[in-house]
Design brief:
The chain is an all-alpha fold. It has a domain of about 40 residues. The chain contains 2 helices and no strands. It is rod-shaped, with a radius of gyration of 25 Å.
Length: about 60
């Protein structure tokens, strides 16, 4: 018998124990995590939009004579 095959059930059991699903977390903690995720995502998009606006405003424009 292959030696790796004997360890496979232990690896699968360990993976199963380390897996955390949404049902394992309290509903309040899930809501807090969701709100934090949304706030950080919208904040990141806002930062990118502000950087882009400043980059466009500060870029050298064509000179009009």
């Amino acid at each position: 018998m292959d030696r790796l095959a004997t360890f496979r059930p232990q690896i699968l059991a360990t993976r199963h124990l380390l897996r955390v699903t949404a049902h394992d977390v309290a509903p309040t903690l899930r809501k807090v995590a969701l709100i934090a995720h949304i706030i950080s995502s919208v904040g990141s998009l806002g930062a990118v939009a502000a950087f882009l606006a400043l980059a466009i405003q500060g870029s050298p424009a064509r000179t009009i004579r």
